[in-house]
């Protein structure tokens, strides 16, 4: 019978292979690496020589694949044309901001640019608070967030009040927030100074509304169903060189 | 200069030692184990023989300590008197439900008993939704949550409405929720069928209110300041035997 660690390793590696097939390479790499680490521990504890040799062979295959992906990502980044596509099906779950782009957030991120024409209404501002929470948590050296969005002409008070509250809260954490209003903005993208560009078809507003205030998934966005949406992740190597 | 992996390993192991000193053993163990894993990788990549030998010696010391803690926890559990105390200072952060007891939640948890006299007002019900989100996420085989709480005499509609909404949402996920009202309840504790008992001095309601709806920490409870509080974690070995 498989022990719990063995199960975890197998589940991580199956996920790695699935993500790999979908060409979601940077996510797949994380699963390969974690899965291989745990599998190596499992192998160390195995007594059955047949099983041990089978698992070792598997681990080597995964290691080779992970190495190959790492090189591929590195090469594409250096050529400035890395591209990863995430398709969110209608009603799919598991796509919180942290799950989608948390792996690109780290202590090396100092500035983040957000272009999203719809940070206007109450729930869109709530999305932005959640976005700020994720970056505050994962980017301890973050110094600046630049937001370009559209002005809410019908109910501007909510927007102005919300944004200035968010700004002053970020300031207390040593993060400056620049806000620019633009009426011609079409793109929805998030740019990290490390060179990653995350383009989300719907911007940050890709979650379905919760059924009620008491719904599982009201707070935890990984449990919230999403609208159909596409996320493209690029790396602009030349951007990274300029920082 | 330390590479990023080395920094991660050192930070995890420093945290392990700090938690170890506070006798927060099960948390400390996780940090030791993750830290040692990463340190082992770092050592493998090192070229400087002096540094390599220094780090290897350190890794062995941490391994010994982790082994010692594992045995200690196992022994105390088997004697039925494992006890871990977490003191939350006034205003401290980093104590979301997931951070505090997420490590006890797993696929082996089938039933959870919650005794908390104050799941009554709007924000207390919100806390309970968040609690349910954490257990839904981490206990994929959960079948039942039993809640014993006090009745809200002043504004009972909010409570009844909130609880029945939560119950029907859990039902859709195959989780039954039993609700019992008790006026004599004093204890605040969460019991997992695996034998763990988490007693929180203030029950689930130990977070300070957010400054505004736009506050960093409105959604992410790890970023929310807490009230001073004490959490005791026990393991009832005999309970585990009965399940």
Low-confidence stretches of chain A: 238-243
Q: Can you tell me the CATH class of the largest domain in chain A?
A: Alpha Beta
Chain-averaged pLDDT of chain A: 89
Largest interface, with counts of residues having CB < 8 Å to the other chain, equals: A-B, 31 and 30 residues
Give me the number of helical elements of chain A: 7
User: In total, how many beta strands of chain A?
Assistant: 7
Task: Just name the CATH architecture of the largest domain in chain A.
Answer: 2-Layer Sandwich
> H/E series of chain A, N to C?
HHHEHEHEHEEEEH
Please state the overall shape of chain A, judged from the principal axes of the Cα atoms. elongated
Which bin fits the share of residues in helices of chain A?
40-55%
Task: Provide key terms for this protein.
seven-stranded mixed beta sheet, disordered C terminus, 7 strands, Methane Monooxygenase Hydroxylase, Chain G, domain 1, about 45% helix, about 240 residues
Describe this structure in words.
The structure is a homodimer of 243-residue chains. Chain A has 243 residues and is of the alpha/beta class. Chain A has 2 domains: 4-79, Up-down Bundle (Methane Monooxygenase Hydroxylase, Chain G, domain 1); 83-242, Endonuclease, Chain A. In chain A, 47% of the residues lie in helices and 16% in strands. Chain A is built from 7 helices and 7 strands; from the N terminus they run αααβαβαβαββββα. Chain A has helices spanning 4-21, 25-45, 49-79, 97-101, 122-138, 156-172, 237-242, and strands at residues 82-88, 111-115, 144-149, 176-181, 189-192, 196-200, 229-235. The first copy, chain A, has a 7-stranded mixed β-sheet with strand order 1-7-6-5-2-3-4. In chain A, helix 5 links the parallel strand 2 and strand 3. Residues 238-243 of chain A have low confidence and may be disordered. At the A-B interface, helix 5 and helix 6 of A face helix 5 and helix 6 of B. Chains A, B: This is MIT domain-containing protein. Chains A, B: Residues 2-77 form the MIT domain.
